[in-house]
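Allow me, if you will, to draw on your knowledge of protein folds for a short while. I have a record of one protein: its chain in single-letter code and its fold written as discrete structure tokens. Kindly check, if you would, that the fold set down in the tokens agrees with what the sequence suggests. Thank you for your consideration; the sequence and its tokens are set out here:
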Amino acid sequence: MSAFENNERGSTPAPAAQTAQTGVLIVDDQAPFRSAARTLIGLLRGWTVLAEAETGEEGVRMAAELRPHVVLMDINLPGRNGIQSTQDLLAVHPGAAVVLVSTYAAADLPEGADTCGAVGYLRKEELTPRILRELTGRPSGTSAQPTAASAGIAIRPRTDVPSPSAAIT
């Protein structure tokens, strides 16, 4: 899927950093999860899915172009895995809040998951609007902040992710 297939009018979307909405990039090779995540994000006021990618390499290219606020990154991807792709993505877009997602139990995460720069990890089945808002510190009508008490979080949240108002300049 190209970066622009989500845009119904076919025009180039503005980078997320230039909009008041929280822009999300979904990177997962499984279409059912991408669909479920897109539906869940649609429930969050002020959030929008900018694009979807099936590989880490594609996700890095889209992140460089679209500048999403939040990236849902599957760990098990074809080619470069989600941990490697998170490092690559943060090199081109360090302001992104990357959330690793997979079916692993937190205790079974692969090496590097805790040091790749992601704000946290969620099991796919635990992804909810509340946890996503809390983990990323991206509000949806509130001023939610990341909390370590959120269910499923295995990685200490980053504190250097800009607020939505800081993105509008």
Remarks:
- The chain is about 25% helix and 15% strand.
- Residues 31-42 form the longest helix (12 residues).
